[in-house]
Specification:
The chain is an all-alpha fold. Helix content is 72%, strand content 0%. It has a single domain, classed as Growth Hormone, Chain: A, CATH 1.20.1250.
């Protein structure tokens, strides 16, 4: 293959352009063992999500009754992620180490997250004047450290898989994540013990994934490395060219606002509406996770068959329908039915959204755009939580479904404007801007 076309333009170091003009070797489909090795870390991360979204709100309810504070702490994203995550993504795109460019972030950040997960229950035993502040600090720090690891981990998926396999690999990956959530929630353990379990499981599975998932070799970068600020500024300029990616990120902003309005308050809503106990509320959350896990096994295959864009449209319709029905449920069976429908919608979204993003941007910048996707949620989620928490304090917990429905419908309307067939030309234009050789993956339909 002739890798010298188009002829690379002169390198503009001041603009932060220092990329190789060679394409990477074609990716071979992953074997079942390699898929399991990559996805294993998500088993631990699923336990983390279950702790944050289901157990943490109940635990924090013992120390504060402020719904706004509980919601912000129970979110897996926070405002600082809007700055941190694009920087992390860009750094992981450029990093060259013997361990690869993604795994070092997992090995550095996960132990930090684990440390503060273990410290959080201990903070609850501090004197009353400092107790709540110490709890908030621990939650904030383990969330930030987790997200520093999570985006490079997700960006590793397109590094090691061909585009036509990403739906299935994402499906198995998310199935393992949902399995981790179910595992944590079904165990009848005191809430502080679940912090310890989530921490140890996350650390063990991360180490195993880093051991069993070698990264493909990367060409060394030439020329002086630009500053991180210059790199991010240059990557952001790419949004002028990558219009479909820009539309996707706006859609994901609305999706994040809608889902974050519900998940941190869901177990509290179930307790308030049905008057059940804490363990029952966590068990009902398992219905959502079980539906998600089972749906992932199907929707990962469907995403590869019909394309991620069509499946993402279906997913938002399912979630919007679940949110609308959440406005009137009053009993545990009714709640279970709504959660089952929502779980199928989340499964379809999980199997399609990220595979779609990988087809809308150049592979050389996928880490940055993964970080930008998280940044969108880091802005939308806390903003939605602040609004929802304030509304809950005045109107009760049922309002979470109204906020969710508005966010999801807005995302759906934006997604209808996305034109996947236009992404190939935009990626080619972006590659020419950066002096990169054209990628054969850009020709695949999204």
């Amino acid at each position: 293959m002739d890798t010298t076309w188009p002829p690379p333009p002169e390198r503009d170091v001041s603009a932060g352009v220092a990329s190789a003009a060679l394409t990477e070797p074609p990716r071979e489909p992953l074997s079942p063992g390699r898929i399991l090795g990559y996805g294993l870390a998500n088993l631990g991360y699923g336990a983390f999500y279950a702790l944050n979204n289901a157990a943490l709100p109940l635990w924090m309810g013992h120390y504060t009754s402020n719904a706004l504070l509980i919601g912000l702490m129970a979110s897996t994203h926070s405002f600082e992620g809007a700055i941190i995550q694009p920087l992390v993504g860009t750094a992981s795109d450029r990093l060259r180490t013997p361990l690869g460019r993604r795994r070092p972030f997992l090995l550095a950040a996960v132990p930090v997250s684990v440390l503060f997960l273990l410290l959080a229950p201990l903070a609850a035993h501090l004197p009353a004047p400092v107790r709540l502040a110490a709890i908030v600090a621990c939650v904030f720090l383990f969330t930030v450290a987790f997200n520093v690891a999570m985006d490079p981990y997700q960006a590793l998926l397109p590094d090691i898989t061909p585009p036509t396999q990403r739906g299935r690999v994402t499906g198995i990956w998310m199935f393992l994540g949902a399995l981790g959530q179910v595992l944590l929630l079904l165990l009848h353990l005191p809430l502080p013990a679940k912090f310890v379990l989530a921490a140890l499981l996350m650390l063990a599975t991360t180490l195993l994934t880093c051991l069993w998932t070698p990264e493909p070799p990367r060409h060394a970068q030439s020329g002086p490395a630009p500053s991180r600020r210059a790199e991010v500024r240059e990557a952001l300029r790419g949004l002028r060219t990558l219009r479909q990616a820009r539309t996707y990120l706006l859609m994901f902003f609305c999706y994040g606002a809608g889902t974050d309005a519900v998940l941190p308050f869901l177990t509290l809503f179930i307790r308030k509406i049905t008057h059940c106990g804490e363990q029952t509320a966590q068990t009902m959350f398992v219905v959502l996770m079980a539906a998600t896990a089972l749906g992932m096994l199907v929707f990962g295959w469907v995403s590869d068959r019909i394309g991620p864009h069509k499946l993402l449209l279906v997913s938002l319709l399912l979630i919007a329908a679940a949110a609308a029905n959440g406005l009137w449920v009053t009993t545990l069976p009714q709640v279970a039915a709504v959660l089952g429908l929502a779980g199928l919608g989340i499964a379809a979204q999980n199997a399609s959204a990220y595979p779609l993003l990988t087809r809308l941007v150049p592979g050389e910048e996928i880490g940055f755009y993964t970080g930008l996707q998280t940044a969108a949620v880091a802005i939308a989620g806390p903003a939605a939580l602040a609004l929802t928490g304030a509304l809950i304090n005045h109107s009760g917990y049922r309002v979470i479904f109204a906020v969710c429905a508005i966010g999801i419908v807005a995302g759906l309307l934006i997604l209808l404007r996305l034109r996947p067939h236009g992404a190939a030309g935009e990626i080619a234009a972006r590659n020419r801007e950066q002096g990169r050789a054209p990628s054969p993956e850009a020709a695949l339909p999204a």
